[in-house]
Structure to design on (111 residues):
């Protein structure tokens, strides 16, 4: 009985004694993060964006549709297989969602 009372006391008192449970540590981390963001916002931008960089970024985004389509087809196929394994209503929802996702991926891939 004494051991049970001691265990209950330790379970109640241990979280309060732990250093990670103090609000001061959380407050300090928040202050440091806010100060870092404020310093980053005050820094001047020294690198100017060149038009060539913008054009290359547009080309990269167009080519990225194919890889996004491939990724969506893979995820959709995985959802269909998972839904077939699960079965029942949840499995049916996964199968339908997987077909929709894979179909949209195929659309992006062929576009």
């Amino acid at each position: 009985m004494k051991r049970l009372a001691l265990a209950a006391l330790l379970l109640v008192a241990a979280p309060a004694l732990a250093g990670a449970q103090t609000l001061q540590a959380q407050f300090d981390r928040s202050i440091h993060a806010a100060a870092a963001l404020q310093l980053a916002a005050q820094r001047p931008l020294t690198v100017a964006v060149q038009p060539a960089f913008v054009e290359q970024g547009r080309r990269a985004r167009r080519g990225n549709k194919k890889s996004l389509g491939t990724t969506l087809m893979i995820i959709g196929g995985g959802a269909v297989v998972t839904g077939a394994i699960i079965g029942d209503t949840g499995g049916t929802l996964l199968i339908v969602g997987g077909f929709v996702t894979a179909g949209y991926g195929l659309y992006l891939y062929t576009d």
Remarks:
- The radius of gyration is 27 Å.
